[in-house]
C-alpha cells in the first residue's frame, strides 16, 4: 500500500539519544515512549546504518510482527536536534505526512508486517537517524533506529597493535583522495563505554605527511595509556570546507592478561556529517 499526503499536528518530543524516557505527544495527551516491551523480535529496523549517494532512492526497512497497535509512526532526528515526527498511519490505513515532509519525496510502503520508509532523490538534508515506532493505547514503542548517511569518497585506515599500561599509543588516520593535506582541521574524539556523547581530546598531533602518488594524507595522534579510564572508542574527524567527516572509530579494550591493552581497529569508509556533530561532543 502506498502512502498519501496530509497534514497532522506535530507531537513535541525531547531527545531520543537516551532511550526509554517520558515524552509528550500533543495529539492526545501523554505517552510513555519505551523500547523495553516491543523487542527486536516484534519491531525491528535490521540496518542500523545505511549509506547512499546524493540523488539516490533509499528504503529504510521496518518490520512489526504484532498487529495489536493503534498507530504507526516514523521519526527523523538530525544530529544534535530533537526528533521530528514525519509520517503516521492509523490502523494500517493510508499514511499521512506531516507539514514539511509532504513534498512527495517521502513514501511508506506497507505490507504484511512491513512499514518501510522510502526517500526519493536523497539530499544532504536527509542525513539523520530514522525511527519506526508504534503506539498501543498510551505507549509509544520504537526500534533502535537507522542512521542514514551520504556515501563519501574518503576512507580511513587505523593502526592496530597491542600496548601495555604506561605505553604510548599512536592512532594513525589515513585519508585518501585529499589534494591538500594542510587543508582540513583534524580532531580526535573519545567516547567512553556507556556514554552517548563523544568528547574532543588533547594529545600529540604529529605533523601530517602525504603520499603524492596515491593522493593519501596521513595524520597521527599519540597519547600515553595511564589508567583504565583511557579505555573507550577513539575517532578521527576532520572539517573539510565546513563538511565534517568522521570514521567509525578505534576501540581500546583490556585484554585477558589484566595489564595489556589491545587496540581493536576497524577499516571503514568515512561518513559525512555536519557541524552540528560537535554539539554532541561536549
From TrEMBL:
Pfam families: V-set. SMART domains: IG, IGv. It comes from Sinocyclocheilus rhinocerous. One of its GO terms (cellular component) is plasma membrane. Residues 166-236 form the Ig-like domain. Its main location: membrane. The keyword Cell cycle does not apply. GO terms for biological process: immune system process; response to bacterium. It comes from the Eukaryota. It is found in: Cell membrane. Keywords: Cell membrane, Disulfide bond, Glycoprotein, Immunity, Membrane, Signal, Transmembrane, Transmembrane helix. This is Ig-like domain-containing protein. SUPFAM superfamilies: Immunoglobulin. The chain crosses the membrane at residues 12-33. Gene3D superfamilies: Immunoglobulins.
